[in-house]
Amino acid sequence: MNTRSREKIKHIQSDYQKVVAQREKLVSHRRKGLIRRFAVFGIITAITGYFMISTFFSQNAAYENKLAEKEQLKHELVQMQKEQGKLEEEIVKLNDDEYIAKIARRDYFLSDENEIIFSIPEEDE
Questions:
Q1: pTM for this structure?
Q2: 117 Cβ partners below 8 Å, 6+ apart?
Q3: What is the rounded distance in angstroms from the CA atom of residue 35 to the CA atom of residue 41?
Q4: Does the keyword Chloroplast apply (predicted)?
Q5: What is the spatial distance between Cα 22 and Cα 50, in angstroms, rounded to a whole number?
Q6: DSSP 8-state code for residue 114
């Protein structure tokens, strides 16, 4: 009986009720728009954040690779500088006639007059 009586009750349509209903509808519509804007803003922020973080990690990895390469090149530079020092010493020695004569005797078995060269093989230990 309760449900029948409610169906028979009619609501009074006054101007105040219409204004309140319109205001509630407007507030509801604005709230839905606000939620949509926040959702879109959140999605855009999440996408931008993802790209920023992925870029950071890729740049960090590239930086680490460059540091490792730099260390390797420093090591090569030190070795090449040592080799350059040895080669410069060799150039100075090669400008000395006595050193050239010594090399010629040792490697090509050239000898001075009345000189005998004996080649003794080196023993491997």
A1: 0.51
A2: 105, 109, 111
A3: 10
A4: no
A5: 42
A6: T
Structure tokens at 24: 């509630």
Beta-carbon count within 10 A of 99 CB: 13
Instruction: Answer whether 94's CB lies under 8 Å from 100's CB.
Output: yes
Give the tokens for residue 9: 């009750």
Cβ distance 117 to 111 under 8 Å? yes
Specify the range with the lowest mean pLDDT, choosing from 64-68, 100-104, 116-120.
116-120
Per-residue burial over 37-74, b = 16 or more CB atoms within 10 Å of its CB, e = otherwise: eeeeeeeeeeeeeeeeeeeeeeeeeeeeeeeeeeeeee
**Domain residue limits, the chain:** 14-108
DSSP per-residue letters across 33-70:
HHHHHHHHHHHHHHHHHHHHHHHHHHHHHHHHHHHHHH
Tens digit of pLDDT for each residue in 115-124? 776 777 877 7
